[in-house]
Please model this.
Amino acid sequence: MTAAALIGAYELKAALVAARGGDRSAMWEHWDRAHIVAAEIGRDLNEPLAFGPSNVAIWSVALPVEMLDSSAAVARAGQVNPVLSRLAPAATIGNGRYSRERLSRHWIDVGRAYHYRADRSRAIGSILLAERIAPHKTRINPAAREVVGHLLRARRTNELVELALRMGVA
Model:
């Protein structure tokens, strides 16, 4: 199982490289291979790889965000968020539990996707959810800070100003 997880993790990294290189086709080919491996494993594995169906679902949103494809990212988020929302944030991965850091990074990516679509309220809501899951990790995350900074410059609300102050962005 460790070998399969390693292959799946490498496929996700290859998908990220393809996304950053602007190769959408290669990105989804690598993601598809990771998805197949995760389905074969059938459960989320704990460290050191933390690979499994939930991680592949998280990457299905993160990859189009990297390509600035907010439509695909929001569509994927709509598919995976109900499942990921049922996972309890925890220190370790197990049945019904998932890494706080990975879940918070997912919601940051969802916030980025909504921000790219100019859906301000959903962007803020996603970043706030990430903060509830992993406050420190969210507050220091460069992508979260960037989204909050952009939103803050566009229009100040009490909720946003309070978040920006907690992040040290204001």
User: Anything to note?
Assistant: Residues 2-20 form the longest helix (19 residues). The two ends are 46 Å apart (CA to CA). The chain has one domain: 2-167.
